Amino acid sequence: MITIATPGEMRAWSARRHREGRTIGFVPTMGALHDGHLQLIADAAERSDDVVVSIFVNPLQFDVDADFDAYPRPIDADVAACDTAGVAAVYAPTAAAMYPSGYQTRVVPGALADLMEGPGRPGHFEGVVTVVNKLFGAVQPEVAIFGQKDFQQLRIIERMVADLDIGTEIIGHPIVRDPDGVAQSSRNVRLTTEQRSAAVAVPHSLDAAVDAARRPTTDPVDVVAAAVAVIDAEPMARHEYTTIFDADDLTEVDRFTDRSVGRVRIATAVWFGDVRLIDNRDLFGD
Ligand code: AMP
After folding, report:
1. Does the beta carbon of 88 lie inside 6 Å of ligand 1?
2. Taking Cα atoms as reference points, which of 15, 235, 279, 241 lies closest to residue 137?
3. Which one of 18, 34, 37, 204 is the catalytic residue?
4. For residue 18, what is the DSSP state?
5. Domains defined for the chain, CATH in brackets
6. Which of 3, 49, 203, 262 counts the most CB atoms within 10 A of its CB?
């Protein structure tokens, strides 16, 4: 496995692989790799000849400096995990290599970025689509894997790839959870033991929503209330938002006109101390 630090070297490596007739599968990450990331890597390996994993904590997408500073960066363990997983190349550029002096271009996402996470995290998705665009430019992947854990991000990237004629196939990988149901996240390591135990309230709240939605007379307001009640019953949790949305265009669903699997999802954001966790699931499936 090779570790690559600059966009130029990354592009040259990919060009060589392409000349050899090989396809590249790409998993962009911010590092602190967990089993969720490893499952995305396995997915990429099934769909391509060579897997590239990027590890870059992108300053452009953090709206809170303290969150950027506190983000875990166990780079040696991450590189070793990629090696074990059979990754062909780790692309780990520095911020200076990505945003050198004089850097000024940004990619502006559209209306999908104004919904859900958007209002509470100004500039976040602009930072995400800008960095993903740059990473795609360096890695030149045939296929890229993103987690459904960040469901809005997945839809925004799909839109960007279509709108900007990028040509990379985007795959949404299902959410990988710990045995107790908590979605795996690099931020989980920042939870205290007590907060980590309390975090089961997040998947439990989504379970309560799914149960409530099964009753044919229930409307979305009641379903959200059922979810929020579970969060509110956990003293260590601070609820930020819960929303029921259309899985395609992310608009809020205020009436169930279609209860089929895959059409409607519920998403939530919950704080434990200064750690913000997000989760979502298919309201009529999963
Ligand atoms: P991150 O390093 O948190 O930016 O995540 C990198 C990629 O892994 C993103 O596409 C995430 O959606 C995905 N991801 C992170 N956690 C999970 C998880 N628990 N299940 C599935 N995908 C995940």
Report:
1. no
2. 15
3. 37
4. H
5. 2-173 (3.40.50.620), 186-281 (3.30.1300.10)
6. 203
